[in-house]
Amino acid sequence: MEGGGGTLSEIHQSAKKLLLRSRDGLERLERLEYSATAAAAVAGADSELSFAVKKDITQIQSLCVEMDRLWRSVAAKPQRDLWKRKVEQIAEEAESLRASLDKYNSRNQKRIREANERAELLGRANGDSAHVLRIFDEEAQAIQSVRTSSRELENANALGEAILSSIHGQRERLKSAHRKALDILNTVGISNSVLRLIERRNRVDQWIKYAGMLLTVIFLFAFVLWRH
Questions:
Q1: Got the DSSP string for 118-169?
Q2: Could you tell me which of 189, 102, 172 has the C-alpha nearest to residue 164?
Q3: Phi-psi bin for 137: left (phi > 0), alpha (psi -120 to 50), beta?
Q4: Can you tell me the distance from the alpha carbon of 82 to that of 19, in angstroms, rounded to the nearest whole number?
Q5: Which of 129, 139, 166, 205 has its CA 20 to 30 A from that of 221?
Q6: Helix (H/G/I), strand (E/B), else coil: 3
């Protein structure tokens, strides 16, 4: 379990110390980025710290290569599996720190580029701050105009949806009224047919009644004549 740089346990302890120092350095860089001394960071005051963090991460990754070689020579499988997980954890943390450092350096380079562009803009303006303010004012007006247009489009869309919803509601009500009118007309048509049938039945009943009365009178008259 020994290598050129010490035992596996010693190398692991060294890697953990470097991890702590790298993590602390990266946190200091991020605090510097968002602190009042960000201008100094743009000017390059954090370059030394960034370089030191990068150097530590590179050293950690070198130690991981060494530990990866050493844990494979461990005889006991449980210990070998344990060291494998420990080495993989160190390697993953180192890779995560490198990714964070790369993101920080990218943001820092962007800030430097933007600072140079602003300086160049101010230099072309020959110290005329009114020109710079006018540019910012025009940009602000353009942004406000876009926002106003967006709100107007949203209002117009909402109005259109309300109108379509109202038209749909009116259409449904008209359909309902039309169905009710048809039902009423059908009901009235049936009622008229029933009334006409009743009237015809009444007239037939009246004729039957009158005919019966007439036949009764004739029968009585004939009976009286026959008795005499």
A1: HHHHHHHTTT-HHHHHHHHHHHHHHHHHHHHHHHHHHHHHHHHHHHHHHHHH
A2: 172
A3: alpha
A4: 19
A5: 205
A6: strand
Taking Cα atoms as reference points, which of 152, 129, 119 lies closest to residue 39?
Answer: 119
Nearest to 27 by CA among 49, 3, 57: 49
Task: Tokens for 151, please give them.
Answer: 């709100």
d(CA 202, CA 185): 26
* C-alpha distance across the termini of the chain, in Å: 160
Q: Which of 75, 129, 96 is nearest to 22 (CA)?
A: 96
Full pLDDT tens readout for the chain, 228 residues: 434 457 889 999 999 999 999 999 888 888 877 764 445 544 455 778 888 999 999 999 999 999 988 888 888 889 989 999 999 999 999 999 999 989 888 888 888 788 778 777 777 655 556 665 677 677 777 777 777 776 777 777 777 777 777 676 776 777 777 677 667 756 656 566 766 777 788 788 888 888 888 888 888 878 788 876
**Distance between CA 223 and CA 22 in Å, rounded?**
143
**What letter represents residue 207's amino acid?**
W
- What are the start-end ranges of the H helices in the chain? 8-33, 38-42, 47-71, 77-124, 129-227
Tokens of 194: 């029933």
- pTM of the predicted protein model: 0.46
Whether the Cβ atoms of residue 69 and residue 3 lie closer than 8 Å to each other: yes
